[in-house]
Amino acid sequence: MANMPPMQSFPEFIKYLWQRLGSMSLAIILLVVLSVASVIGTVLLQNQDQTDYLQQFGPLWYWVFRSLGLFDMYHTWWFLTILGFLMLSLTSCLWRNVPKMLKEMRSRKATVSAKALKRFNYLKQWQLSSETDTNALQESLRQRLQGWEFRLVEEGDTQYLRADKGRWNKWGYILVHSAILVILVGGWMGAQYGFRGNMAVPEGKSEKEISFLQGTETGHLTMPFEVRCNSFSIDFFPTGAPKEFRSNLTIIDGGKEVLTSDIIVNEPLYYKGVRIYQASFGDGGSDITFKLFHMDGSEAITTAKTQVYKSWIDTDTGISLKITDFKPYNVENMANPGEPKKFQDLGPAVEYEMRGPGLKAVKIKAFMNPFIDADGNNQGSFLMISLSGDKADYKPVALGLDLTNKDEWKLFHAFLRHLAALTENGKQTKEANLEAFKAAMTEVFGDNRPKGFQQMAMRTLQAVNMLPQLPWPILPMLDDFNQHYYTGLQLAQDPGMNVVWIGSALLVIGLCIMFYMPHRKLWLIIKPNDAGIQVSLAGMANRNHLVFNKDFHDLFTKMDNDFASFSS
Q1: Residue 566: band (very low, low, confident or very high) from pLDDT cuts 50, 70, 90
Q2: How far apart (Å, rounded) are the C-alpha atoms in residues 508 and 505?
Q3: ResB-like domain spans which residues (predicted)?
Q4: How does pLDDT run across 460-504, given as a tens digit for each residue?
Q5: Is 31 exposed, middle or buried (0-12, 13-18, 19+ CB in 10 A)?
């Protein structure tokens, strides 16, 4: 305020502030601040779970960022205030300059003073005889400049012929500034009155509430209609990545089915101003059947039925299983380090958390099928176990037995019984192992040896070393399933989107006018003097000076030939 001129009244003070608000320096500062804030909002993912932010940044920086509102920056008071000041700055700039630009485009002053003429960068003069036909001189310029606009003014004995091309060029500046203002208004409308939330709809069910993270809280909004997922389908790439997932949805409004349509990624469904996008998918509560292998030496195998996202408790042992996820396809790269990737589908797998009396909670991923190696050998059933509960800490555990074959479970226990009977003083020998296995094979299979019994023997020995190490009273393995998906939808309403599109169109038009329609001006000045007639050709352009320089000199050369013929 130190540079502010002395004010005589309050209206003058308001006028001064209005002029400063529309200054270029303030607009640049506001744009820089908005740009920096937008970069932060792009790099720092917005509206994520607060625990993710806390783990990523730690307690100190988490609270600093949270106090600044950086986790939901585009709705903070300071961001919207800066946006508002930028809109006021653009409005002030347009208010002050548009009338001047319109007046300048309409006026087309034709006269040029002698002092101003000397300052032209493009100027050429001829001295012709007094008998030269001035109308012919003017007509020569008109013929050379097809498509230009002309205005003839006579002031005293001097004639001024002005030629313009692209004189509406300043509409480009007006449209560009107006477009930015329109885009900002559209963005503000979307931030204030729009919404974007998520909805998970299991197959065969309907939902009408969306949830969204706003700042540090989770908000909920009830839609004026229901969305029902009739079916969900998905295709995969050989790598296991989703190729395309498609939902068949029905919109139910007022208890009536009003619209049924398929949606895929980037092809949303539009209803009552709300766009429904296909965003994600997951398990929608699949039916899971476990085989429970009792580890008490009884050879007992029982079953348990439950669903994903539910818990099952074994009343006998107190073991609880909390089912967290199920996937029918689990594609992994089985190539050794340094070898080309080799993807293999390991088959269906269920994830669960196991807890029980005296047991440390663990996270387990149990596969339904045994592992078949690259040579086609059955390596037996296996688990992935995480002692920390984090999926990133999964470690493979080979169980040895192929638990999809109940005979191998019987063979394992028969082998342990015969081995215990043959082992002397607790010392296990190869001869005892072989004799115990032969006796166990006869007990389970009789004289009919199964195919691949040699591999079965290796798996049984592996199980003898592995299974007793497991501290659990039961071993839950996936036996059967009935897959149910949920479709993850994102519902968005942006009342400012069409406004932004209009602003974007205006911006493109304005930029095209600015860059491809430069305003070029030429003056042909015919003025009598003592030696006859002095003819001056002057020109200027607001853009593309290299092109204008060439065009002006080409025109000068042609006019020079014309004027020479007139003089002769």
Answers
A1: low
A2: 5
A3: 24-552
A4: 889 988 998 999 999 999 999 998 889 999 999 989 889 999 999
A5: middle
Distance CA 399, CA 38 (A): 53
The residue type of 445 is F
Q: Smallest Cα–Cα separation from 92: which of 157, 23, 1?
A: 23
Radius of gyration of the chain (CA): 41
Is 517 within 8 Å of 489 (Cβ atoms)? no
Helix, strand, or coil (residue 277): strand
pLDDT above 70 for 238: yes
DSSP string, 357-418: TT---EEEEEESSPPB-TTS-B---EEEEESSS-GGG-EEEE--S-TTSHHHHHHHHHHHHH
Three-state DSSP at 354 gives strand
Q: What are the sequence ranges of the domains in the chain?
A: 10-105, 115-166+520-566, 193-285+485-502, 287-481
For the domain made up of 115-166+520-566, the CATH class stated in words is alpha beta
CA distance linking residue 512 with residue 176, whole number of Å: 10
Q: Can you tell me which residue has the tokens 């002769």?
A: 568
pLDDT band at 3 (very low <50, low <70, confident <90, very high): low
Q: Are 399 and 382 in contact (CB under 8 A)?
A: yes
Model pLDDT for residues 110-130, shown as the tens digit of each residue: 889 888 888 898 999 988 888
* Mean pLDDT within 394-412: 92
pLDDT at 425 exceeding the cut of 60: no
Kindly list the strands in the beta sheet with 149-155, ordered across the sheet, starting from the edge strand earlier in the chain: 122-128, 532-541, 520-529, 158-165, 149-155
